[in-house]
Amino acid sequence: MASTAKATGSGPRIDADGPHVSMRRSLGLLDGAAIAASSTAATSSIGIGLGLMAGVVGLHLPAIMLLAFLPVLAIAGGYGRLNAADPDAGSSYRWVGRTLSPWLGFLTGWVNTVGTVVFMAYTTTVTGSSIIQLLDLAHLRSVAGLRLDADSTVQCTLIGLAVLVGAALVAVRGLDLAARLQKALLVFEYAVLLGFCGYGLFAGDQPFSLQWFNPFAIPSFEALAQGMVLAVFCYWGFESVFSVGEEVRDARDASRGGMLALVVMLLMFLLAGTAFQRVLPLDELADNGAHGLAYFGARLADQPLAALPLIALMLSAVASLQSSVIPTARGMYAMGRDGVLGPVWTRLHPKYSTPAVGTLLITGVAVVLALCAVTVPTVNDLVSAAVNAIGIVVALYYALTAVASAVRFRHLLRTDLLEGLRAVVGPLLGAATLLFVGGYLAWTFYDSTDHFELAADNGWFQLSVAVMMIVTGLPVAAWARWRRRSPYFLGDAR
Prior knowledge:
This protein has one domain: Up-down Bundle (Amino acid/polyamine transporter I). Helix content is about 70%, strand content about 0%. It is built from 20 helices and two strands. The chain has a two-stranded antiparallel ribbon. The longest helix has about 35 residues, at about 100-135.
């Protein structure tokens, strides 16, 4: 059924066609926190991201995670204030568009969507890699004469795609089922992480140093900037709870759920970063990259216990695939509802009232992109290229949303100073920080080489991926503005 649901507090919507049909308000505080936590995917970020960051900042993982948390927390305050005033499936796309400019709003929604689809594409590969590693532990090392390779992009992608399709079908079934599934997965993941990382703090033989927590000891400003972008990427996803703001029973629970997920992420990252450095020397930590968590587990325990971190990584990847398609489909639903995209994106499932068609379309795009990504030879190269590019665009759209909060609520500086600090000053400081480090990293990529090459360590290639994520949205926006004559761009959508 095609529909344009009306969001609480957001004013009337533009009908794509047919009557108003709202998505169900079926989520509570813990459900929202579970979606946000699954989107940030702590286990995947720890299992993959810490090794990549160690190669950049050395033995300062706790410092960079704590440093990156501060601007993200400040920006989260802006997200929460915007959601309290206007819960909307489009979240930052709508907020930035209404407050700053519809072109900037569209850009915010577009890079969020494209970045998430890229994330889904390579996370399918990570999922397949963890499955192959588990099969190897079970002594199943070949199928039909083909030797399984956990670092083969082709094999890992094909296996992961089957998981992606299954996760999308569960999302179509409804957020209540998806949230219950993700809460169960999170309990297992966190239990494994707490157990292994807690044990690693005491069993590790690498000498502990307070310098691990000192950001001034990071080798260079370039390392600091790239480490910040990578760390912000690890926190990326907390805002997914705001995209289901129309499906949360109490709008305040979306803000609380996002903040709860962020604080839990910080504690998990600090624990894991310290534990990894207690157990693994820097060269081993940096060299294992995408297989870092499995290697960490193998150093602490024998089989079958050593397989638990790998199982947790696989479940985290599955949960993050599902929690990625959920907010992305709702963002496209909001764009379709505003006439920016076609009415197909507004079609809700007749029984479950979820944007089913959009969910399946987004999944299809991720499948195509994942198949294109098999040209990258190894999982480690694929992850490295994608994470840096996504980190830059995440810094951009977080900053735009923060500026929208500051502009919209600037009057609070005169009427309510505490709220003004939360909704205006904090977001502005966070935005300035992310724009600076993201811009500096983009410049270092540009300045690092004098030629273009399809390689994960080529600066022009890494920068071009980020630029493509942005510029591909321009013709879509132009079509919506001048051909569709979308009310969103003409100032008629409220």
